[in-house]
Write a structure and sequence with these properties.
It contains 11 helices and 8 strands. The chain is an alpha/beta fold and 265 residues long. The chain has a single domain, classed as Rossmann fold, CATH 3.40.50.1820. α9 links the parallel β7 and β8. The longest helix is centred in the middle third of the chain and has 17 residues. It is globular and about 50 Å long. It starts with a strand and ends with a helix.
């Protein structure tokens, strides 16, 4: 594995050899979220993982952030690594960043996978995340962690894999509260910027979520896939918001199949 820091301070991990695939983690996590995908994907691809602004080892710029700043980070990263074209896989907030990037850089993407993303949320659905933001502002961001783990992973998985749960908890606990809230507020309100524009996505696209994901609902993924020309949609049975961890083998097989059909070698 090669770890490096590129222009602008983004921390990047690069593994494997072959056509490039860039992975974007969810809010509050970091590039290690994809650890279970690396052994499978590096058999065929160069896997590029990075920490978003204010996450992991990447600092947050001293400014008020917008979704476009996260897409610009990806653009700078791909320029620095001289990636002419690449496949893009994003989970949760990574979906919003992926779509924002794709709408301005269609010629750079060979394929895109949108995992456990939100789409056209109702006021009732938005109220839930706004409530969590208010709770974090009054009680601290640590107050959100237990409920997040319950939403993201099934009870049986949490009981059977305490070490994996502890690693995610540690990642969440180590977040700088201001950095986390800056990103979480963008996640809470960014999808209206994208909802009406998805017909402009032109690369082969797979949209997927967990059957039991309470925030990134299967209905959202199906609607997103309908809005994107020729997109595919797969709902992962029995999984929640972190299928990359709880359903790693299923996710790996899904990614290898889709990328194998869509990414030129």
């Amino acid at each position: 594995m090669s770890d490096k820091r590129i222009e602008g301070g983004s921390h990047v991990a690069i593994d494997g050899d072959g056509p490039p695939v860039v992975l974007i983690h969810g809010v509050g996590l970091d590039h290690t979220m994809w650890d279970a995908q690396v052994p499978a994907l590096t058999q065929r691809y160069t896997v590029i993982r990075y920490d978003m602004l204010g996450h992991g080892l990447t600092p947050r710029p001293d400014k008020e952030l917008e979704l476009g700043d996260f897409a610009d980070q990806l653009a700078r990263l791909s320029d620095s690594l001289e990636l002419d074209r690449f496949a893009l896989v994003g989970l949760s907030m990574g979906v919003l960043v992926s779509l924002k990037f794709a709408l301005s850089n269609a010629d750079r993407l060979t394929a895109m996978v949108l995992m456990n993303g939100v789409y056209d949320r109702t006021e009732e659905q938005l109220a839930g995340i706004r409530g969590r933001i208010a709770q974090a502002e009054t009680e601290g961001t640590q107050a959100l962690i237990d409920a997040a783990l319950e939403r993201w992973l099934s009870e049986s998985y949490r009981q059977q894999h305490p070490e994996a749960v502890a690693a995610i908890r540690n990642r969440l606990e180590s977040n700088n509260p201001a950095d986390f809230l800056a990103a979480y507020k963008i996640f809470a309100g960014a999808d209206p910027q994208l909802t009406a524009r998805l017909s402009a996505v032109s690369c082969p696209t797979l949209v997927t979520t967990g059957e039991l994901d309470r925030g990134s609902l299967p209905a959202m993924s199906k609607a997103m896939a309908t809005a994107i020309p020729n997109a595919e949609c797969v709902i992962l049975d029995g999984l929640r918001h972190l299928p990359t961890t709880e359903g790693a083998e299923t996710v790996n097989a899904l990614l290898l199949d889709f990328l194998g059909r869509t990414v030129p070698r």
